[in-house]
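#struct-help
A.M.: can someone run this one for me? Single chain, 69 residues.
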Amino acid sequence: MNVVERLCAPTPKFFKIVRTVGLILAAVGGVLVATPIALPVALVTAGGYLVVAGSVATAVRQAAVEDCE
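D.P.: on it. Structure tokens below:
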């Protein structure tokens, strides 16, 4: 299975949930990083980690397919 076929193949239900959770994590992290008010450094750092975790979860979701024969 080449890359294009893998990207076009149907995704299992679990990984659709992973995509949604990943997008939510990335959005929350983006809000924490880009907020115009001064936040504690730990909170901004956590926001950066959330953005990375959400992006990775969404990318991993894209590689999972139902039928990989």
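A.M.: thanks! The mean pLDDT is 86.
D.P.: also worth noting: The two ends are 8 Å apart (CA to CA).
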